[in-house]
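Q: what sequence does this backbone want?
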C-alpha cells in the first residue's frame, strides 16, 4: 500500500469517482509527482488511464485559438477517449489543469500569460477551456449512448488542487430570475 499524502489545501467538494477514471493532464515536468499524489489522495491509485496533452483541456480541444494548426489533437483525444471507454468502461473524466502553464502561453500568447497577482484571470481562462471540453465530451457521450461525468481541477505549483465546480448554465440562471410583473 503506497503512502498517500493528502494535499493540504484541497477542499473535498467533488463527489468521489466510483469506477475507473480517465485522467487528462498537461505534460509539465514540474508536477508529475504531484499529479500521482493527487490521484492517490482521491482513492484512485491504479484506477485511472492517464492521457497527457500539452495544455490539458486546451490541447485536447486542438488548441482552437492557437496560431498553428493543432486541430488533429482533438481527433487524437476523441480516439483515446473511445479506447479508454471500450477497454475500461470509464465513467468519470478528471481534467487537471495547472497554473503557470507554458502550453497556454505557447498556444495563446499574451492571452495565456499570467502572473501570480491576477489569479482570477488565470482561473477564468482555464474554466473557459475546461467548459468547452466538457461540452465536447458531453456531445461525444450522447453520440455514443453513454454518460460521462467530467470534473475539472486547477493545480498550483505546490501541488494543491482546486476543484472547478461547474458553472450554472445560462438557461438555469435565466429561469431562476423573478418573472417580470405583468403589465396592467
Ligand atoms: Zn502546462
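A:
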Amino acid at each position: 500500500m503506497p503512502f498517500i499524502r493528502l494535499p493540504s489545501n484541497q477542499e473535498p467538494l467533488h463527489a468521489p469517482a466510483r469506477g475507473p477514471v480517465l485522467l487528462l493532464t498537461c505534460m509539465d515536468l514540474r508536477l508529475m509527482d504531484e499529479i500521482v499524489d493527487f490521484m492517490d489522495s482521491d482513492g484512485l491509485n491504479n484506477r485511472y488511464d492517464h492521457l497527457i496533452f500539452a495544455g490539458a483541456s486546451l490541447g485536447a480541444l486542438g488548441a482552437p485559438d492557437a496560431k498553428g494548426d493543432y486541430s488533429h489533437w482533438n481527433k487524437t483525444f476523441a480516439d483515446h477517449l473511445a479506447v479508454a471507454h471500450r477497454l475500461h468502461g470509464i465513467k468519470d473524466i478528471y481534467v487537471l489543469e495547472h497554473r503557470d502553464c507554458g502550453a497556454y502561453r505557447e498556444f495563446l500568447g499574451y492571452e495565456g500569460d499570467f502572473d501570480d497577482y491576477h489569479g482570477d484571470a488565470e482561473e477564468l481562462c482555464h474554466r473557459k477551456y475546461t467548459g468547452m471540453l466538457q461540452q465536447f465530451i458531453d456531445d461525444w457521450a450522447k453520440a455514443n449512448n453513454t454518460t460521462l461525468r467530467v470534473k475539472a481541477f486547477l493545480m498550483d505549483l505546490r501541488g494543491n488542487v482546486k476543484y472547478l465546480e461547474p458553472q450554472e448554465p445560462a438557461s438555469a440562471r435565466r429561469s431562476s430570475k423573478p418573472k417580470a410583473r405583468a403589465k396592467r
